[in-house]
Each structure stands twice: as structure tokens, then as C-alpha cells.
Specification:
The chain has three helices and no strands. By secondary structure, the protein is an all-alpha fold.
């Protein structure tokens, strides 16, 4: 019976060794798995950082494109306004020529008229009081007296009854 005893201890040791090897293999598997998780987490963080950088870059590009588009729009609006002004100026003489045959409407006085201003207006010279209180509508056509003088088209003096002294 003494011979059986040593084999049972050897078998116990062999069993312990196999159990230890299984534990080592299991620990190595867990280590590999944890290492892979860490690698994937680093990769995800790196991709997230790159995605954030790309998003920031695209936001900056979009901001520049928006500013450029606003400049283009402002320039186009400026050109349109300029073209409209040119057209209004070019059509204004035609309108004035059409309105020249019709006398302009009389202006209303904004303030009560004093006796002095009535007497002065009858003589054709506005009084200082009348000149201060007279209100002209914006864009109203000027009378012939208020418009600047233009040189005659030809060098010959205008036809008249003779020299004016």
C-alpha cells in the first residue's frame, strides 16, 4: 500500500498543475480581451477627436462661405440700387417734359400767413417769415425759377425783340 500513496500525491500535483495552467490561460484571455477593449477605446477617442476637428473645420468653412455670400448679396443689392437710380435719372427729364405743359399744384402753407407775407407774396418776393415757415414736400418738382439756368444749345443769342438794357 505504500506504493499507492506516492502515485496519489503525484496525481494530486499533476491535477494542481493542470488547474494552474487553466487559470493562467483564462487570465491570459482576460488580459487580451482587456487589451483589445483599451485599444478600441483609444481608437474611438481618436476618431471622435478627428470627427470633432473635422466638424470645427467645416463650421469655419461654412462661416467663411456665409460671410462671402453676404458680401456678394450686398454688392448685388448695391448694383441694383445704382441701376435703379440711373434709370430714374434717365427717365426724370421725360417726366418733367410731360409735366411742363401742366402747371405745378400750389403749395399749402404750413403756418398761418401774416399780413406782411401776403403783401410780400403779392410782390413776388418771399418775406423772411414766409421763407422760414414754408414747407416743401420731399421729391416735389421745383418751379422754373428754382431750377438752375442752362446755357443755350447754340452760340447765337435767343431770338427776341432786341437788346435788353
Amino acid at each position: 500500500m505504500k506504493a499507492l500513496k506516492p502515485t496519489s500525491t503525484l496525481q494530486k500535483l499533476v491535477g494542481e498543475i493542470q488547474l494552474a495552467r487553466l487559470q493562467v490561460a483564462k487570465a491570459e484571455g482576460q488580459r487580451k480581451s482587456a487589451k483589445e477593449h483599451a485599444r478600441l477605446a483609444r481608437r474611438r477617442r481618436k476618431e471622435a477627436k478627428e470627427a470633432a476637428r473635422r466638424a470645427k473645420k467645416q463650421a469655419k468653412l461654412a462661416k467663411r462661405a456665409l460671410a462671402q455670400a453676404k458680401l456678394v448679396l450686398a454688392e448685388a443689392e448695391r448694383r441694383l440700387a445704382q441701376a435703379r437710380r440711373r434709370k430714374a435719372v434717365s427717365t426724370a427729364p421725360q417726366k418733367r417734359a410731360a409735366k411742363a405743359s401742366v402747371p405745378p399744384p400750389r403749395k399749402k402753407k404750413a403756418w398761418p400767413v401774416s399780413r406782411r407775407s401776403v403783401a410780400a407774396s403779392a410782390s413776388g418776393v418771399p418775406s423772411p417769415v414766409q421763407a422760414e415757415h414754408e414747407v416743401e414736400a420731399p421729391g416735389a418738382a421745383k418751379s422754373e425759377l428754382e431750377q438752375p439756368l442752362q446755357a443755350p444749345a447754340s452760340d447765337q443769342p435767343p431770338a427776341g425783340n432786341g437788346p435788353v438794357a
